[in-house]
């Protein structure tokens, strides 16, 4: 797993960005939806039985609850994506290269792109344009 650490760090950084954007989007959309719903006549009319004198508190509470739910969901997403990356890297290490079926071609492409970016960042000219897959690149010292 250490052998593929740079590629995993790149992919983990991408999932971190996705988590932050996901939490912000879920929180903002729920806050805006609750503000829009509370601006209806039913909640703004003083004569209504459902009148809310200060809807800002309800909107803030709604946004806080949405953030907590989004945080929980994105934490599960983080664990799931990290598990997939670790399993894929372990498969690469144990079998000398991943055995790709039809179902994981997207993960293969993403991982190979991250491996290539990691090689470029380290200045490794070990890439070839002959279309053949490369053996797993070893990032650990002494290999």
From TrEMBL:
Localization recorded for this chain is: Cell membrane; Membrane
**Keyword Cytoplasm assigned:** no
Q: Where is this region: Disordered?
A: 96-143
The main location class comes to: membrane
Membrane topology recorded in Swiss-Prot or TrEMBL: Multi-pass membrane protein
Basic and acidic residues composition bias: which ranges? 103-122
State which residue ranges cross the membrane. 12-37, 57-77
Pfam assignment, any one:
Choline_transpo
- Give the protein's biological function: Choline transporter.
Sequence similarity: Belongs to the CTL (choline transporter-like) family.
The name under which this protein is listed is Choline transporter-like protein
- The gene is slc44a5a
